[in-house]
Amino acid sequence: KTHIIAIANQKGGVGKTTTTVNLTTALAACKKRVLVVDLDAQGNASTGLGVTDKTDIISSYDLLLHTEDFKNAAVKTQVPGLDIIPASMDIAGVEVELAGQTGRERKLKTSLNSYANNYDYIVLDCPPNLGLVTLNALIASTSVIVPLQAEFYALEGLSQILSTVNHVKSNSNPSIKLGGIVLTMFDKRNNLAVQVSEDVRKHLGAKVFDTVIPRNVRIAEAPSFGSPVILHDHNSAGAKAYIELAKEVLVKFEPS
Amino acid sequence: KTHIIAIANQKGGVGKTTTTVNLTTALAACKKRVLVVDLDAQGNASTGLGVTDKTDIISSYDLLLHTEDFKNAAVKTQVPGLDIIPASMDIAGVEVELAGQTGRERKLKTSLNSYANNYDYIVLDCPPNLGLVTLNALIASTSVIVPLQAEFYALEGLSQILSTVNHVKSNSNPSIKLGGIVLTMFDKRNNLAVQVSEDVRKHLGAKVFDTVIPRNVRIAEAPSFGSPVILHDHNSAGAKAYIELAKEVLVKFEPS
Ligand SMILES: Nc1ncnc2c1ncn2[C@@H]1O[C@H](COP(=O)(O)OP(=O)(O)OP(=O)(O)O)[C@@H](O)[C@H]1O
Ligand SMILES: Nc1ncnc2c1ncn2[C@@H]1O[C@H](COP(=O)(O)OP(=O)(O)OP(=O)(O)O)[C@@H](O)[C@H]1O
Ligand SMILES: [Mg+2]
Ligand SMILES: [Mg+2]
After folding, report:
1. Taking the C-alpha atoms of B146, B148, B154 and B159 in order, what is their torsion angle to the nearest 10 degrees?
2. What is the per-residue DSSP string for A192-216?
3. B35, B155 in Cβ contact below 8 A?
4. What is the pLDDT along chain B (256 residues), one digit of tens a residue?
């Protein structure tokens, strides 16, 4: 059965795209068949995986609008075993275009049915809001991973994304699970970060991944080379952390 | 004449709220009468200025929807001379609620007419997207300041916000100016940051503020105390940088 994982958090800049790009690369390195779906009009996950041409392409927009091409949107990346459905700018208009249509929140779920057989993991990079596109992602997903920057504003927003997931679970997608919260850009010398991390572990315990992603300049450099940090510098602390996270995900999601 | 400044960038986590909270505090310290309008459903600017109760209040939602209370939304903050119109969660639904209504992009402009006489500066904290709420902000503004994190994904998105501002200028608000781009969370030891900064200054020259905001742990700590960094630790590098930025804004915006 295909695992469909939404990477979601309405707080901006917390590492959603970085986690999508690097976790999927690590899963592919573990011989899983993986598909990334870039749902953010900014198209950062597409860039991070080397897709530079974002105009006049089949994109995740086609999955959300159910156009005639929606089954042909997946393209190969430079990472063996990792495909992507890129983003295009017109995703920004989806909320208004679908306003009023019944079933508008289940469009992505239906479209992904056509892809599920070909992949072990489908990972959805969400935009920094809880609008219709993120709602589509949560309804299409079997689980959600929430990247959390260890800072005050990000902590303040955590209860909002968690209550949205619970709301989706009781109203639209009973099978969604909270896959876990992953601490990102973590600097252990920073008191605030240590405090936030202790706070989150105290309240959410096992829901927080053991793996912590450190702040690491190699991670921030990698997108400028159009490649994941695991390919850009596989010996870096950042690459190693995402490989650890992938191992932890495999243990949690495939316990056999 | 009142300066209305939008703090906008669709890229998440680049320092929009931090710039709003601290620039306005510094302007108030320079004896200007200042109003912050928090247009982000996350409500971070409200928190950063000590407003904790965000349910059942008059908020920026009322300005966008033109409810009967919209003229009574401003409340005092702990900073002398600085008021705020806080955010509430229902702002997230504005795009759908106003879909199809003519003039939906000028709602904020009309509402702010009722506030303009009382303030020298009105500063609008925008959400991380280029949707209807940010469009309202750009149409209501006399100028826009774009915080830019010196990183690759943020640089990739810069052309998008700049072309949106140009689009608004030629179609809806001919008087909007690009007030400037301000580099945030800058670490001069980081090659990538130095490269991005040189790149931006080469292409945009005088449009980039001379003042650069350094990455500074005091800035990230201040919101957990519900206060701007200038009050939390006025000797910190972060506080000093925002005071410098305010001085530069005053020189640029009030050249007499
Ligand atoms: N562990 C890390 N160490 C250093 N830099 C990082 C790390 N994780 C992410 N970054 C950088 O921080 C910035 C924000 O990360 P990213 O874009 O992945 O967040 P996001 O949540 O997807 O943002 P948005 O809300 O705009 O979609 C990027 O410039 C990225 O390169
Ligand atoms: N100069 C700085 N030094 C250190 N930390 C900073 C600095 N500026 C902002 N931060 C921190 O970085 C994070 C992102 O900043 P902020 O929330 O202001 O960005 P934003 O663009 O408003 O985000 P969003 O897109 O979610 O609205 C916050 O946790 C903030 O405290
Ligand atoms: Mg992203
Ligand atoms: Mg903000």
Report:
1. 40
2. HHHHHHHHHHHHHGGGB-S--PBP-
3. no
4. 999 999 999 999 999 999 999 999 999 999 999 999 999 999 999 999 999 888 889 999 999 999 999 999 999 999 999 999 999 999 999 999 999 999 999 999 999 999 999 999 999 999 999 999 999 999 999 999 999 999 999 999 999 999 999 999 999 999 999 999 999 999 999 999 999 999 999 999 999 999 999 999 999 999 999 999 999 999 999 999 999 999 999 999 998 7
CB contact under 8 A, B157 and A127: no
- State CA A228 to chain mean position distance: 14
Tell how far CA B121 is from the center of its chain: 11
Is the CB of residue A197 less than 8 Å from the CB of residue A212? yes
For residue B48, which residues of chain A lie inside 8 Å, CB to CB? 153
Q: In sequence order, which residues have a C-beta less than 8 Å from that of residue A172 and are 6 or more positions away?
A: A105, A106, A138, A139
Angstrom distance (rounded) from CA B109 to CA B113:
7
A14 touches chain B (CB under 8 A): yes
Cα(B14) to centroid(ligand 2), Å: 6
